[in-house]
Design a protein that fits this description.
Oligomer: heterodimer
Largest sheet of chain A: 4 strands, mixed
Distance between the termini of chain A: 28 Å
Distance between the termini of chain B: 33 Å
Low-confidence stretches of chain B: none
Helix content of chain B: 25-40%
Radius of gyration of chain B: 24 Å
Strand content of chain B: 25-35%
Number of strands of chain A: 4
Radius of gyration of chain A: 31 Å
CATH superfamily of the largest domain in chain B: P-loop containing nucleotide triphosphate hydrolases
CATH architecture of the largest domain in chain B: 3-Layer(aba) Sandwich
Low-confidence stretches of chain A: none
Order of helices and strands of chain B: EEEHEEHEHHHEHEHEEHEHEEHEH
Shape of chain B: elongated
CATH topology of the largest domain in chain B: Rossmann fold
Shape of chain A: elongated
Number of domains of chain A: 2
Chain lengths: 384, 310
């Protein structure tokens, strides 16, 4: 197997160039993982500010109650700009405007209309809304049913009833689900790393074996061209398997995943993507004639498709036409299936019905790239 | 017969690169294939090696038809291309081992043959070097070692000494002679006539895709014997004296320029003594007399009217 051995020697002698992509990907994974691990899995109290023209027993009672559930903050500047700044700089998450007439309206059994302002991208709105609703519902129930009780007495009874405290924790499934989604993002990053290392390996080997003089000499040997191709592909496959195993081992250990069904589906999707990347690299590398062009093509295509495909930026914030362009690359579908695995709790037939078509599209890309390469080779052979 | 080419025709669109060419190579000979650029030498070799498809004719190597799938025949052939066809990423030893490994599968045999090839081309001190670290001459020697390590019976050398220093050239030529003495049949293409004269038992001259002359170096020179020259340093020679010299036997042409007299003769032996006698009679002072033997370059000039190294 002289060709196979030579392929491995060529790759090992260019290992610094080849592992650059590997290193960059691992670096990205570490950064992403450290960002994700900063997200607490315990619900943190929201910072609530109550803005009211007159402080009265109702506002004091509400403030006291909310302080038990969340964290009531005092804002010095209650002008519009001051409140906007407070929200922007995260001094407050939730602002409640309590009307001066609220106390009177409640006693008259009228509906009180509140105005609120919430910092975007937090859980605060749902949590605080629920607290406020609970407070006023309890207050209304006591007011209706204790007709002879005084207003301070009703406020006190409401306080007592709502005194029970608890810590909200996401349930285990939720945590696992979150972890699974984060793992999907890690696998998405692989699209960049795998393309880089596979494409560069194919291009390096192609550049060496397609040098006209070497090619001619090889053609004069008793080894048939298809056996050359087989041995070259075997060498590359060995290298790719090794790199993929290293990538997967790092992801699995870093995300603390075990070899379960989820990991299995992620690996299947990764293998499908590798197949398409191998045929794409094999096809593209046949057009690379200079080593200088190699890193250019790798970065332009690799980074480009990863950005378009939603590896680095969530797809939902990109314009629709970007997704339309991205769907012409296997990266888009790889990310699509990773995200599907990430958000799936129950891997049943319904999941498979969504997974399989995307997997088939990735396979179709593999076949298309392979066909393009074969056609290119035949054209070039006829031309010669 | 090692190579038997009959009526070979190869066309590139309207250009006929080989025009009904016949070529035979006998076992154990060194055949020189000469011709200017574009004469069809490389096309001929590529057709013989089945690297190119041809339009008409038959090619047999070792008495068997040569095709792209004749792997058993390829096993017995070695090729040394003009360009240095080695891997920059591999050392000298790894390169030779790779190419030899395509032909030899037994590990022990491979090791021995690689070592023998290294010794033959004199690269023992450079086995761990990469091709980029080698001088032009050493790189050429590596190129040769890669083509002959599997000890083929038939070897094609395509201008193996281009841009090589005299020491390396001498080493290469000696190595080729040694390979031939060990039994290899050699087809050698070159632009250097002196190399062809030194190495080849038989020479074929190609031009415009046709064999225009072939034979041993002596036979080829005999074809153009008329062009032998006597050159003398003559300080003064009048037109009348030139007229007298022109009448001497076998003289074809006289040229006097910059105090140098060049006498072109059909037969040097017939001309030399009468010329010297005439110079004495005419009291013409002369010095530094020497003759210019016919070279293969002259043969080619006469046949094609062009210098080979154009």
């Amino acid at each position: 197997m002289p060709v196979y051995k030579t392929v491995l020697k060529i790759l090992s002698k260019n290992i610094r160039v080849l592992l650059l992509g590997f290193g960059v990907t691992i670096f990205m994974l570490l950064i992403m993982s450290s960002n994700l691990s900063n997200n607490s899995q315990t619900l943190q109290p929201a910072k609530v500010a109550i803005i009211t023209p007159h402080t009265n027993s109702l506002s004091r009672s509400l403030k006291q109650y909310l302080n038990q559930q969340q964290q009531v903050v005092y804002l010095k500047d209650t002008s519009q700009k001051g409140l906007d700044d407070a929200l922007f700089f995260q001094e407050v998450d939730y602002i409640l405007y309590l009307p001066a007439t609220a106390s009177a309206q409640l006693q008259a059994e009228q509906k009180v209309k509140f105005k609120t302002k919430v910092r975007p991208g937090t859980y605060s709105k749902e949590m605080v809304d629920q607290n406020i609703n609970q407070y006023f519902n309890t207050l209304t129930i006591y007011h209706r049913n204790l007709a002879h009780a005084s207003w301070p007495n009703i406020l006190e009874k409401t306080q007592q009833t709502l005194q029970h405290q608890g810590k909200v924790r996401f349930d285990k499934n939720y945590q696992r689900h979150q972890q699974q989604q984060h793992t999907a993002l890690d696998y998405n990053i692989l699209a960049y790393g795998l393309f880089l290392v596979i494409f560069e390996a194919y291009s390096l080997v192609s550049l060496v074996f397609n040098r006209q003089a070497v090619k001619t000499r090889n053609l004069c040997s008793p080894l048939a061209p298809n056996k050359f191709t087989q041995q070259i592909n075997l060498g590359l496959l060995g290298y790719i398997s090794l790199i993929t195993a290293a990538f997967l081992a790092i992801i699995i250990s870093y995300t603390h995943s075990s070899f379960n069904q989820v990991t299995g589906w992620f690996i299947i999707n990764t293998v499908l993507f590798i197949l398409s990347t191998m045929t794409l690299s094999s096809w593209l590398s046949s057009y690379i004639k200079k080593a200088e062009a190699l890193s250019g093509v790798a970065n332009v295509y690799g980074l480009g498709t990863c950005f378009l495909g939603g590896v680095f930026i969530p797809r939902n914030i990109m314009p629709a036409f970007v997704s339309k362009i991205a769907c012409f690359t296997p990266t888009y579908w790889f990310v699509q299936n990773n995200n599907l695995i990430g958000k799936t709790v129950d891997f049943n037939i319904n999941f498979f019905q969504h997974f399989a078509p995307t997997a088939l599209i990735i396979l179709a890309f593999t076949v298309a790239f392979w066909t393009l390469q074969v056609c290119g080779q035949r054209l070039s052979k006829n031309h010669n | 017969m090692i190579i038997d080419v009959q009526n070979l025709v190869k066309r590139y669109d309207k250009l006929t690169a080989l025009n009904h060419v016949d070529l035979q190579v006998q076992p154990g000979e060194i055949l020189g294939l000469l011709g200017p650029n574009g004469s069809g030498k490389s096309t001929m070799i590529n057709c013989i090696l089945a690297l190119l498809q041809y339009d008409r004719g038959d090619i047999k190597v070792f008495d068997q038809p040569m095709t792209a799938n004749s792997y058993a025949l390829k096993q017995r052939i070695g090729i040394i291309p003009q360009e240095i066809a080695v891997f920059e990423e591999l050392t000298v030893q790894e390169n030779i081992s790779y190419y030899c490994g395509l032909y030899v599968h037994d590990r022990q045999e491979l090791k021995v043959k690689v070592q023998q090839a290294i010794e033959l081309v004199g690269l023992e001190d450079f086995i761990k070097f990469y091709p980029k670290q080698l001088s032009g001459g050493l790189a050429r020697r590596l190129n040769i070692a890669c083509g002959i390590a599997h000890q083929p019976e038939l070897i094609f050398f395509d201008e193996p000494t281009v841009a090589v220093d005299p020491q390396s050239r001498n080493h290469i030529l000696q190595s080729i002679k040694q390979l031939n003495q060990q039994g290899a049949t050699i087809v050698y293409t070159t632009h250097y006539m002196e190399e062809a004269e030194f190495l080849c038992k038989r020479i074929v001259i190609l031009d415009h895709g046709q064999v225009i002359a072939q034979g041993t170096p002596t036979e080829l020179k005999d074809m153009v014997k008329a062009n032998e020259k006597i050159i003398l340093e003559v300080p003064l020679l009048t037109a009348a004296q030139q007229q007298v010299l022109q009448q001497l036997p076998a003289i074809q042409h006289i040229d006097y320029q910059n105090q140098s007299l060049t006498v072109t003769s059909k037969d040097l032996e017939q001309t030399l003594l009468p010329l010297l006698e005439c110079l004495k009679q005419q009291k013409i002072v002369y010095a530094n007399i020497h003759t210019q033997q016919i070279s293969l370059n002259d043969v080619f000039l006469t046949i094609t009217g062009r210098q080979l190294r154009d």
